[in-house]
Design goal:
This protein is an all-beta fold. 0% of the residues lie in helices and 49% in strands. The protein is built from no helices and 14 strands. The strands form 4 sheets. The chain has a 4-stranded antiparallel beta sheet with strand order 3-4-5-6, with no helix packed on it.
């Protein structure tokens, strides 16, 4: 579970007992979090630092890479190969290779992306647009976007 304004990422492994089994310092306020389906690793995008950290759980490890953006959210692809990071105060989603921690071409055409989620089958990335009452659904592969109007103000 990423925690805002605490400089670490706490991971609760035993949800039934609700106990924290490990804590991994990542710095920069872990705000966006993508977790590998098998629970072997997680990725923490840091909202106040231009970093993304890859956290391994067995054995414990943290690898942090710097990027030219700060983030609002992160989601890992269904196959665990790609991390999608909502670029804070921008109009893009950064596409990061999870193995090498390098950025590829960005997905453009959004409006201050915030929350982000990849569907379990890996067919779509869904992105909220802060300040705009719509959900952007991005088809994978290909990047075709559909905008779904949402009730409210988007803020």
């Amino acid at each position: 579970i990423g925690q805002f304004d605490c400089r670490e990422l706490e991971v609760v492994v035993d949800l039934d007992a609700a106990i924290v089994t490990s804590s991994h310092p990542v710095g920069g306020d872990a705000y966006g979090l993508g977790v590998q389906r098998d629970g072997s690793r997680a990725f923490a995008a840091q909202v106040h630092a231009a970093n993304v950290s890859r956290i391994g759980f067995s054995p414990p490890s943290v690898q942090t890479a710097g990027f030219a953006f700060t983030s609002h959210g992160a989601a890992l692809s269904a196959d665990g190969r790609t991390l999608y990071v909502a670029v804070r105060n921008g109009s893009e989603v950064a596409v990061v290779d999870a193995a090498t921690m390098t950025e590829g071409p960005r997905i453009t055409g959004l409006s201050n992306p915030g929350g982000i989620h990849v569907d379990p089958q890996g067919r779509y990335v869904a992105v909220t647009n802060y300040g705009v009452p719509r959900l952007t659904v991005i088809q994978l592969p290909g990047g075709v976007q559909r905008h779904v109007p949402m009730p409210g103000t988007g803020g």
